[in-house]
Design goal:
Blueprint (H helix, E strand, L loop, with lengths): L5 E2 L7 E5 L4 E3 L2 E5 L3 E7 L2 E6 L2 E5 L5 H7 L8 E3 L1 E6 L3 E7 L4 E4 L6 E14 L2 H9 L4 E3 H7 L1 H19 L10 H17 L3 E12 L5 H19 L3 H15 L6 H14 L1 H19 L6 E3 L6 E3 L73 E2 L6 E2 L14 E3 L6 E3 L14
Length: about 425
């Protein structure tokens, strides 16, 4: 029978436990154990002596427990059968983990069930070689990283699910916001997985969560993100869900051109944007109700406002809804025939620029005529623009001789021809003399 002379580690770099292939040993056999390793002799299914790093000679002095079992004699070379296991105690920090299928978690903030996937890495090192060999390795010939991940998959999936759920519920954090708390969540998970690892002689060095992802095509996730986007839009614009529904109701009624209440709904919608929806909606519906009621009354007592079409009494001069003066029909149309001074296009009231050429609309305060930018007098009605007092800057009607604010004289004589001049022109209108 052959007797092994030298025993040393010959396994791969990612192996935690490796059994030497031969079981025929003898006294004076050399056992070489590398740094960050331990060797364990196994006889009859029992783990006996543990050897640290260095060179060891298998004799009665080094294997006292085994010596009692096989009764090795002093001197000579006596063969015996035993297993030699090498346990790597080096720190392995890049063991990847991940959830094979999504974990259904109820979002504590919004109450919907959302599927969550998680992945990351963890690091371990064998702390108790004998316990690790007995409880985890068993009868395997080799135990590597893949085996560790496979053995503890059920453990970390269960712990990850419980830890994520507990953390979200206790801290009231939404699943959509959980990536901001990954560092705290990693520490939270490590504290719950570490005790189970120690039972197998393994020290959990670290446990990191790299990512918590949510499937983008999940119906619950799509609805939740759409709702959050809508809420963000409401917050930016400045209204809530109830107001939006009221807006939709008013807008629908305003678009119904066949209804006589459409203009009033449109007015209510416009007012609701600026001064609060409650009063405007109430007024709008009140006007509708009033219009419906008046439609059944004597037609000889009521008439329709030409501007907003609200029912009003025949002897009523001003409309109670829009304030239109029924006796001054030309007042509201003072600029109905106004044309742009630059291109001649028709201008409408409240315009600021010409829709054809873009020229700025400079309306005359009296007739609405488009005055050129440098003009001080309206060519249509003769209105003269006020002038600025050179002393205090106060705007004064033309023809005023003294400023009512500072009392400064607004007339002066030309030093060349002696004509009396009002205002602050740069040149004399009579002789063309330039004023300093």
């Amino acid at each position: 029978m052959a007797i092994v002379e030298v025993i040393k580690y010959n396994g791969g770099p990612d192996v935690f436990a490796w059994k030497y292939p031969s079981e025929e040993l003898g006294t004076w056999t050399q056992l070489i154990v590398n740094e960050s390793q331990e060797a364990i002799l196994v006889k009859g299914g029992k783990a006996l002596d543990v050897f640290g790093s260095g060179r060891h000679t298998l004799d009665t002095a080094n294997i006292p427990i085994l010596n009692n079992l096989v009764n090795l004699p002093f001197g000579g070379r006596s063969p015996f059968t035993a297993e030699v296991w090498f346990i790597n105690k080096v720190y392995s920090l890049d063991i990847k983990w991940g959830t094979a299928s999504p974990i259904q978690i109820q979002d504590p903030k919004y109450g919907v069930f959302i599927p969550v996937r998680s992945n990351g890495v963890f690091g371990i090192h064998v702390e108790d070689s004998k316990k690790f060999l007995i409880k985890l390795v068993g009868t395997l010939s080799v135990l590597d990283k893949n085996s560790i991940v496979k053995f503890f998959r059920g453990l970390y999936i269960t712990k990850v699910k419980d830890a994520v759920s507990q953390y979200l519920i206790h801290n009231q954090v939404s699943v959509l916001e959980i990536n901001a708390y990954i560092d705290e969540l990693s520490t939270f998970m490590k504290e719950r997985i570490e005790p189970t690892m120690k039972e197998y002689g393994i020290n959990l060095v670290n446990f990191y969560v790299n990512d918590l992802s949510i499937p983008e095509d999940d119906s619950a996730v799509i609805k939740l993100k759409d709702a959050l986007a809508k809420r963000a839009e409401m917050n930016i614009i400045g209204y809530n869900y109830q107001q939006e529904r009221s807006f939709d109701t008013l807008e629908g009624a305003a678009k119904n051109t066949g209804s006589s209440s459409a203009p009033i709904m449109g007015a209510g919608l416009g007012l609701g944007m600026g001064v609060g929806l409650g009063g405007s909606v109430g007024n709008a519906f009140g006007s509708i109700s009033g219009e419906i009621n008046t439609s059944n009354r004597d037609a000889n007592k009521y008439r329709e406002c030409p501007k907003c079409h609200t029912a009003m009494k025949k002897d009523q001069r001003f409309c109670g809804t829009c304030g239109f003066d029924t006796e001054d029909t030309g007042k509201d149309d003072k600029n109905s025939d106004v044309k742009c001074s630059n291109c001649g296009a028709k201008l409408i009231k409240n315009m600021k620029f010409c829709p054809e050429c873009g020229n700025k609309y400079n309306p005359c305060p009296q007739c609405g005529y488009d005055m050129p930018d440098e003009a001080t007098k309206c060519d249509k009605c003769g209105y003269e623009a006020p002038i600025s007092c050179s002393g205090c800057g106060n705007m004064i009607s033309k023809g005023t001789k003294f400023c009512p604010e500072c009392g400064m004289s607004l007339t002066k004589n030309c030093p060349k021809c002696g004509i009396s001049i009002e205002g602050s022109p740069k040149f004399c209108p009579e002789c063309g003399e330039k004023f300093e």
